[in-house]
Amino acid sequence: MPKMTEMTDEELVSYRDDCFEHPYYNNLTEAQTEAHKELLIRLAAGREAMARVKELEKEVERLKATAVCIYCNKIMVADNGKDKLSMMIDHMSLCDKHPMYKIGNLLIEIDRLKSDKRELVEALEQAERRTDALYDATFYKILTGLITKHKEAL
Ligand SMILES: [Zn+2]
Questions:
Q1: Backbone conformation region of residue 73, classed left if phi is above 0, alpha if psi is from -120 to 50, else beta
Q2: Domain range for residue 113?
Q3: pLDDT tens across 54-102, in order?
Q4: How far is the CA of 113 from the centre of ligand 1 (A)?
Q5: Which of 73, 87, 140, 141 is most buried when burial is the number of CB atoms within 10 A of its CB?
Q6: CA of 73 to the centre of ligand 1 (A)
Q7: Residue 74 domain-assigned?
Q8: Any domain includes 91
């Protein structure tokens, strides 16, 4: 007979039922019988509670490994290969509802416009140099005025 604390749930239930049928109970006072029954019932309840604790701990681990994108509701569960944070970071660059994705696109647009502006500044500076080379007081005044206006507009 294994120790009660080492019995499976089925063994414990069967043992409890056997106990209540056992002639031993006939020799106990009613209070003793009740106390014994209560002990067995509490032990079974304790085992049930511990089994529930194990389930809940498993659920906590699952939730700890789970990330949800609050913008598109995609659920991501970390596996052996990837942790939750790197999964979220990867997702941010793919989720068109995520602000990080939008920020990324805006930064690309800003870079493109800045690069356009650099090209324009270079073109204006080239025009300035050419104007110097083709020096004519009136022509120079008109052109440098135009170039300055364009530069100020940038
Ligand atoms: Zn998303």
A1: left
A2: 99-153
A3: 999 999 988 888 999 999 999 998 877 788 888 888 898 899 999 888 8
A4: 28
A5: 87
A6: 6
A7: no
A8: no
